[in-house]
Specification:
With about 190 residues, the protein is an all-alpha fold. Helix content is about 80%, strand content about 0%. It is built from 9 helices and no strands. The radius of gyration is 20 Å and the shape is globular.
């Protein structure tokens, strides 16, 4: 449990730090010059001042690497979550016959993503933004549910969350709710 907590903590901090610097870097370089990225081609062209004639190739390598990573991680995490939620636990080691629901979930999610991405004329930047907005919206009820589970000693036993930690969790949920409200207000106008 200690290593799991450390892994989550390091991953969360690094994700936030990297995301922050991506936003700052884009604001300091692209936004000040009035560059708007509406497509993958725009993103590749934005690298031209840094990478010159290699900008498109560099961007292509980066996007392929990200796609390979995402194609493994996201459908697998969804398959694990769905399997545990339905009580039909499975894992990669089980094989298709040992865990048909797990593998079916994995292949369904990966197949759906593949179809969406390969549809002609689909605005991929819009799909990325939409998935992240959906991710943020779904995060709030998920965190409330996780909080309730973490506070329940019948479920968590000796690992249930105590008052001091619970207060921190409530504040975090409140901050995320405030950010979602700000997102809704700013995008509605």
């Amino acid at each position: 449990m200690r290593y799991e907590r450390l892994d989550v903590l390091i991953g969360s901090v690094l994700t936030g730090v990297i995301g922050f610097f991506v936003v700052v870097t884009c604001a300091a370089t692209l936004h000040v010059r009035g560059v708007h990225v509406d497509s993958a081609a725009d993103a590749a062209e934005a690298l031209a001042p840094l990478a010159g004639s290699f900008a498109r190739s560099l961007f292509a390598i980066g996007i392929i690497g990200a796609a390979i990573l995402a194609s493994a991680v996201l459908p697998l995490s969804t398959a694990y979550s769905l399997s545990e939620f339905t009580g039909q636990e499975g894992a990669l080691d089980d094989g298709f016959r040992g865990a048909p629901f797990f593998y079916g979930s994995y292949l369904s999610v990966a197949g759906l993503a593949l179809v969406i991405v390969l549809l002609p004329g689909v605005p991929l930047i819009g799909v990325l933004v939409l998935t992240q907005v959906l991710n943020a919206i779904l995060l709030l009820p998920l965190l409330v549910f996780m909080y309730l589970l973490a506070r329940d000693p019948r479920v968590m036993g000796r690992y249930s969350v105590h008052r001091r930690s619970a207060a921190l969790y409530v504040v975090t949920i409140g901050l995320i709710a405030s950010c979602l409200a700000a997102l809704a207000i700013l995008t509605a106008g």
